[in-house]
Amino acid sequence: MNKKLLLVFLLPVILGLPFVGRAFFVDDHYHMLMAKGLQEHPLRPYDFVADDAGLDNAGWGKGQPPRMVNPPAHHYFLALFDQLGGGRLWFVRLGCLFVAGFTAVFIFFLAQRFLIPPLMAAVMSVLTPAFLLSSYTLMIDSTMLMFFLGGLCAWIEGLHRRSWTLKLLAGFAMGLAILTKYTGGFVVILAFVYWFLHHKSKTANQKSASPSPSSSPLPLGKVPVCRKGYVTLCHSLSPLIYLLIPIVMLGLWSLWNIAVYGAPHLTESSKRVVQSFSLLHVISFLSFFSGGLVLPLAFAGLSWRKSRKMFGWVFGAAILFFLFLAGPLGGFSPGQAGLLSLLCAAGLFFFLALPGFLKSTHVSSDLFLVVWLGLGTLQMIGIMQWVAARYYLTMVVPVVFILIRSLQILCRHAPSKINQYQSIICLGMFVFGAGLCWADYSQSRTNRLIVKDVKEIGNWKLDIKNNKLSVGAGLVSACLEGKGQMQAGRPHVGYRKYYLGDSFTGSYLKDAGWKTGFADTDFQPGDLVLYRQVTMPPWWFRFDSNRFDVVKIYEYPAKFPLRVMDNAGAAGFYASAWGALPFTFSKSPLERFILLRVKSP
Q1: DSSP structure string for 256-285
Q2: DSSP state of 579
Q3: End-to-end C-alpha distance for the chain, whole angstroms
Q4: How far apart are CA 365 and CA 118, in angstroms?
Q5: pLDDT at 201
Q6: CA distance linking residue 210 with residue 269, whole number of Å
Q7: Would you say the pTM of this structure is higher than 0.85?
Q8: Residue 283 contacts by C-beta under 8 Å, 6 or more apart in sequence?
Q9: In the structure, what pLDDT confidence band is assigned to residue 577 with cuts at 50, 70 and 90?
Q10: pLDDT value for 304
């Protein structure tokens, strides 16, 4: 057992170790800015500043809506790892891998309780792209999952062992899940559901096992019926007291927010993230559900013979969906339309097969897994403004457990095939996950490469007399207009350097002396503006040839076709607002930076 636990703990660490040198990508730098701020003022977590929707905006200014919509528990972890590692980014990522290791251990224990092969369940969970790629990032979801599963694991064991210590620990861990990410409060609802099902099952067993009144009559008058019923009720409800702990922790956190920032962070941040229902959101949900976890694809491939009629209807509808997406109204390429249709169909088939799964299984706890999956789906579709692969981390456990149980049911007459299928699935997930990790690592590396490449701009000189912008090594020469204006007292000589983006995308450029620019920045003639074309959405910045000249294009091609972030490829692994696919296959460059010169204000 100890050897298995050690293997489970080390598995995500070993798999993520090659990628601890990954550059800042997407939200990484923003979270590190908050962690750095905590080291300076640990009791005021939102006093850090970042170029988020403007220059040097505070994470949360008093009387203003918060820019950082998450509580700070994860950022305290980052601050600790940053201190221990002496500011080395790779050490912080290594600390996050250890967090993922503990999460894998909790999955192992949960699998034991749900009568699922624990080692296989933990390995399969770690190999899902959502888990694997999130393990070495600096974003909050992995830390939230550790507290989420740790609290649920302690709660379930506490109920079965009747241990107040475990239930107390569970309540505290659930509170930390909420203080890492508010959607982590979902674990409290799950804990209540498990208690309800467990209490109902225990009561039914006691009734079936109790002797009949005629066989062993109870002495009358010994215990008053009303008193006995009251005591029994209090005893059965007593575990729920521990579920008040996370609520109290959230309340204390909100009181602290009021004292420091003037309002509860939960209510203020919810105004920015809660969204209304949309059919397009359902499509993105199904696409990321299948692509971020992969297992629904395996489930469809293994279960179609058992549910041929439903399989035919679902994938027949997927063909029609493909024709629409690939047509003039859909706007997707045939490859993108095919991948999106396939992922949506696999996800839909998985959910439609759940009632049949419940009829086939003889393990009572499987009902809890289906309820877990259903409630998680309602939360994702009804609350989240968009989806990202990492948002599905709280759904990894029920999906993995249901798949393994389905394999046991499908192969009950040929148990030797179970290990064969599981091995094939794990091997396929490992290969595909490694490809996604490499694509993610390569794309993040362009944030460092561009800094090296634009150093040549420091040697560029403005020749006012000849009205030329001279570039070192004779690479480019761009004609400058507005000579009279520039000589008439402009506050800069020659050009200022801006990159279009924010703290999420341009951290290295800012350190190299570039200023952050936004679509509404007051650019002046002669300014140089650098913007990225692959990972920044086109609706964020519209290139106007009447206002800008293209000076130079920096492109970073790659022969490896897998992409996790690509606007043209409709892929947005970290946010479906960037694309309806979690990944895509593309020949486009990893990134394309376009250097512009401002012609007119």
Answers
A1: HHHHHHSS-HHHHHHHHH-----HHHHHHH
A2: -
A3: 69
A4: 15
A5: 66
A6: 52
A7: yes
A8: 340, 344, 580
A9: confident
A10: 87
